[in-house]
Structure prediction request, 417 residues.
Amino acid sequence: MDYSYGEWEHQDQSRRARFWTGVLLGIGVSVVALFIANRITGRHWGGRVSIPEPPAAFSLVSGVGDTTGDVANSRRNAIVRAVEVVAPAVVTISVTQLRRERAVPFADDPMWQFFFPELRQEFVRRVQSMGSGFIVSPDGMILTNEHVIRGATQIVVNLPDGRSFDAKIFGEPDEQADIAVLKIEAQNLPTAPLGRSDDLMIGEWAIAIGNPFGFLIRDAHPTVTVGVISALNRDFSPSSAGGRTYRDMIQSDASINPGNSGGPLVNSEGYVIGINTFIFTQGGGSEGVGFAIPIQKARQVLDDIVQFGEVRHNFWTGIHIQDVNRWIAQSLGLQSDRGAIITNVEPNSPGAKAGLQRGDVIISVNGKAIASDRDVRDEFLGAVVGQRVELRVIRSGRELTVTLVLEEIPRSRRDRG
Prediction:
């Protein structure tokens, strides 16, 4: 189709009109949109931004009134309050040891020593390590693990408030129980309240407080980790626990790492229920399996060290036992040959005072089933003078519970050797 010059001009003007109409319409829409956006965001034409202040009280839930105080109270829960009570008494223990080492690793090889006698030379190296502890008396008594301070030539205790004190080992550490007492010269110190460990419940909160970072962080304030009590009355033989026998240990999944040893395990009421001692790990870090010495056992050790300077493991029961064999079980009418029978009870002994009799069959000690006389002896490992031991026995076909209080060996028996 052909167009004349006039027709082209008319169409061109029409297109220009439509173009400018679209431009003006777009500008108008943009201005309106910008105005609405500025009203929503609070931006004024003067260029300043006005941010409305939040109301003095607001609710996270629609329809609920002022909850600011409730939120603050919920943050300060039982765990926070427990940490506030105990943490000021948790200390960092810096230990310096002197270790004798060979010049080369294979210096003990007889062949190498024969050809190279100079390899026998030793040198002394200063080694630093770190652990935790907690203050138990205002005049500076501190509980910790024996393995934390073993072989120490110098011990420095750092308090959360920044003060440092040279510490001395008080009395004789109990290597068997892995407990030691330190003493610093200070007064009016914060103390960690000691609780009970015989009424613990699996699943209740467990709070581990200590210093796992060691020398990496120059901060005397302890670290807090939280979990639950996973199990109770865990026993470990020397082969599985670094050469020591641990009994009745508390298992928790609160993260415990190197440096936490000796620190307190705390319940949600703010009482120390155990001393964090060791972990099971394959990679060297915490895997949620930590173990603590029950605080009641630690208190017995503490009392002995403070009063006598050492732990009195040389206790006396006055009872003699042997395995229950099949013949004994049949003659006594027992349903099995598991247990240990009492063959003799010495007069005026702790066993006699507890009411034990010849012929009683021990079937449990402190709630743990007994299969042989060796089990009984194992349950008494680490016991101390004054400790109460609960025995479950069978007498004339009836089960009885007897409480035996361990006593110190009489001097007359010690003199006989």
User: Anything to note?
Assistant: Residues 315-415 form a domain with the Pdz3 Domain fold (CATH 2.30.42.10). The chain has a mean pLDDT of 81. The first strand starts at residue 90 and ends at 102.
